[in-house]
Structures are given as structure tokens and as C-alpha cells.
Specification:
Length: 406
């Protein structure tokens, strides 16, 4: 590598480390759980997506071990070559049954699912020589949705951004395009937006999609296992389960938390993605242990609702108590609880002080969130016992008072 390039990279690195947006040095010395070990000390984990506490659940761990024993460590193949084991198809069927869809396709991550989905649909002629598609995307959609859309060739795809959760703005765009001869119209949204924990207005989007003959794509990575009485996600809570054309989710958060993602939908859509989604075709199959453990995680979720209920109860408790202490949060019901602090320096300092006081929580600041809206993003889990939450709240009170935040 040339010295000029090395210098460029090192000055960029120094600038980014200075901004402290991505800090890597806080290593966990234990499994992911409600309480973890950091620097030799037990701290309450309030920063993970381990919403249901399945990352270290005995039944999920056992299923991973059984998966390795029976099916080995890796499959050393993409799905279409020799990388499909019985367990891969079984898991796809299980997810479809859970989400009330016709079929499901697994990817090595949700990032890969989103990148695969958009490029597969828009870049292919589908028998038409001349065509143009259009995508309407929420302004705050996840990076993987944005990157998926970047792969859609500009010659064949118009890309429009509508204001966050602004149904009127989206409808205005759809209306403007009504007379245009688009082949596909795709509305794309997160189910839950991860910076604020707010939900997309899916029931309204379903109606709009129907009225304007659009395909509705929803990435419910923070909804699956989390939202709705039975954890089926935002579509369940808003009464539109079975009405989302492409329902995406992750296996890397509530459902075991290891890795993997999926797209669930009609048998035609999923069959087509198996033929055309490049991140599926040209990438390795999910490891057997992840598949068997994820399957066990879905079994746990389907068998009894107590984990989801515990998560909802813990969330309601934390939201009520943190407000009682005098902190300002973004209202809602999701286990993502943004504690608003304003200045980046306050969020940085408070996160560091809380770690010393036994709580692991991450701060977010510009450019990840708008300037002046720095925050601590708390994430609650069913793995938290009430005493863990009380310990965390005690630390928030102590640190908050010392820093004159409350
Ligand atoms: C909405 C959304 N989509 C996709 C992803 C990426 O998921 P994965 O880790 O499975 O690639 C995330 C994770 O942060 C997410 O929040």
C-alpha cells in the first residue's frame, strides 16, 4: 500500500475515533445476556438487540450443539449447490407458518436479504424490453435498504424518498406518478426505526399499496419477536399480518441473536428470489448450528407467550421509572428507549460514567442522529430481572444527578 494512502487512511481513522461514533474497545468477557462481564465487572447490558434473552437461553444453546453434532459445523456451499440441508427448508417453512405467508427464503444476514431483494426485482427484464420501476423509501430506512436500492440501476429505477412516516407525503408522490407507465412500484419501510423505536404506519401503507398497485416491502428486524402479543411484529400489532408483500426479518436480534435474515412472502416472490437474488445464490448457506438454534428459538416463541410478555412488562416498567426520575425519553412502547440528552459530549460522558457505575449503554449523536439530539439508546430485554432494571435505574439516577442532567 502506498504511504500516501496509508496517511490518508490514518488521518481519516483519527478523525473518526475523535468523533467517538464507533467505539470498539469495550469488550464483553462473557456471553451476551441481561448482565454481562466487562473489565472484570458485572454490568447490566442495556445496549443489545437480545430482546427475548435467547442469545444465551439454555434451549437455544442446546439446539446449536445438537445441530453441530448431527449436521456438522459448516456446509461449505451455497444453497443451490449442496448447501441445503433438511433443516434449512424446515426453518423456512416454520417462519412462513409463523408469519402466515406462503414461503420464506433465508439469507446469511438481513443486510444480504435487503441487498438481494431490491436488485433482483428491479434489474431484471422479466420479459419486458423497455421498462422502468419506481421505489418510494422512508427517509430513515436502514442502511441495508438504502444500499439495496443503490444496486438498482438508475436507467431502470426511479428512487424517491418520502419524509419519515409521512403517509400524506408518500401518497402525494404516488399520486404524481399515477399516470406514469411504471412496471413495478415498491414502497419500502422499516417496521420499527432503530434510532427512535417508532413504528411505520403499516395499516395505512397496506391501504396505499393496494390503492396504487404497489408492492409493500417491510423490514421488521426490530419487530420480529418483539412487537405484537405473540411477537409476530408490527404487522401483527397493526392488524395487517398476511398483507405485507415482502416481509423481511432478522435472526440476529430477538430470535437467538446469532446471524441470518429472511424474506417472507408469496411463493412466486420467494421462488423468484431463489433464482435471482445474488446475495443468496453466490453466498454460503447458514451454518447448521445457527439454523437448529434459530428453529428452537421460534419454537420457544410459538409455544408460550411469556417471553414476549416479560419483555413488554420490563419495557413498560423501565419507561415509567426512567421518566419518574426526570429523564426525557421518546414516548412509545418499544424496548428501544431513547433517553434524550441534547449535546454529544453529555451523551459520551454519561455513557462512560454509567459503565463505571455498572451499566452498559451506548450513546448516539450526530451524524447518526440530528445535531442537538444526542441520546443514550437503552434497549430492554426479557433477560433482565427486575433487580437488574432497578440497579440500572439507580445508576441512571446517581450519574444523572452528578452530571446535573436531572
Ligand atoms: C432495520 C434493519 N435491517 C437490517 C439490519 C441488519 O440486520 P443483520 O444484522 O441481520 O444483517 C438491521 C440491524 O441493525 C436493522 O435494524
Amino acid at each position: 500500500m502506498s504511504t500516501e494512502l496509508q496517511q490518508l487512511l490514518s488521518s481519516e481513522l483519527a478523525r473518526m475515533e475523535e468523533s467517538q461514533t464507533y467505539k470498539y474497545e469495550t469488550e464483553l468477557q462473557s456471553a451476551q445476556d441481561g448482565v454481562v462481564k466487562v473489565n472484570g465487572k458485572e454490568v447490566v447490558m442495556l445496549a443489545s438487540n437480545n430482546y427475548l434473552g435467547m442469545s444465551n437461553h439454555p434451549k437455544v444453546r442446546q439446539a446449536a450443539i445438537s445441530g453441530i453434532k448431527k449436521y456438522g459445523y459448516g456446509v461449505a456451499s451455497a444453497r443451490f449447490l449442496c448447501g441445503t440441508q433438511t433443516i434449512h427448508r424446515d426453518l423456512e417453512k416454520k417462519i412462513s407458518k409463523f408469519l402466515k405467508t406462503q414461503d420464506t427464503i433465508l439469507f446469511s444476514s438481513t443486510f444480504a436479504a435487503n441487498v438481494g431483494f431490491f436488485s433482483a426485482l428491479t434489474n431484471e427484464k422479466l420479459g419486458m424490453e423497455n421498462y422502468k420501476d419506481v421505489i418510494y423509501s422512508d427517509k430513515l430506512n436502514h442502511a441495508s435498504i438504502i444500499d439495496g436500492q443503490r444496486l438498482c440501476r438508475a436507467e431502470v429505477t426511479d428512487k424517491k424518498i418520502y419524509n419519515h412516516n409521512d403517509v400524506a407525503h408518500l401518497e402525494q408522490q404516488l399520486k404524481e406518478d399515477e399516470g406514469k407507465d411504471y412496471r413495478l412500484r415498491i414502497i419500502a419501510t422499516d417496521g420499527v426505526f432503530s434510532m427512535e423505536g417508532d413504528q411505520a404506519p403499516l395499516s395505512k401503507l397496506v391501504d396505499l399499496a393496494q390503492r396504487y398497485k404497489a408492492i409493500l416491502f417491510v423490514d421488521d428486524a426490530h419487530g420480529i419477536g418483539v412487537v405484537g402479543k405473540s411477537g409476530r411484529g408490527v404487522a401483527e400489532e397493526q392488524g395487517v399480518l398476511g398483507r405485507i408483500d415482502a416481509l423481511v426479518g432478522t435472526l440476529g436480534k430477538a430470535i437467538g441473536g446469532a446471524a441470518g435474515g429472511y424474506v417472507s412472502g408469496s411463493k412466486e416472490l420467494i421462488g423468484y428470489l431463489r433464482q435471482k437474488a445474488r446475495t443468496y445464490i453466490f453466498s454460503n448457506s447458514l451454518p447448521p448450528s445457527v439454523v437448529t438454534a434459530t428453529s428452537a428459538a421460534f419454537d420457544l416463541l410459538m409455544k408460550d407467550r411469556s417471553l414476549v410478555k416479560c419483555l413488554h412488562d420490563n419495557t413498560a416498567y423501565f419507561r415509567k421509572e426512567i421518566k419518574r426520575l426526570g429523564f426525557t425519553i421518546i414516548e412509545g412502547s418499544h424496548p428501544i428507549v431513547p433517553v434524550m440528552l441534547g449535546e454529544a459530549s453529555v451523551a459520551q460522558q454519561m455513557s462512560a460514567n454509567l459503565l463505571k457505575a455498572g451499566v452498559y449503554v451506548k450513546g448516539l449523536w450526530f451524524p447518526v442522529v440530528p445535531r442537538g439530539e444526542a441520546r443514550l439508546r437503552v434497549q430492554i430485554s426479557a433477560a433482565h430481572a427486575r433487580k437488574d432494571l432497578d440497579r440500572a435505574l439507580g445508576a441512571f439516577e446517581k450519574v444523572g444527578k452528578a452530571m446535573k442532567v436531572i
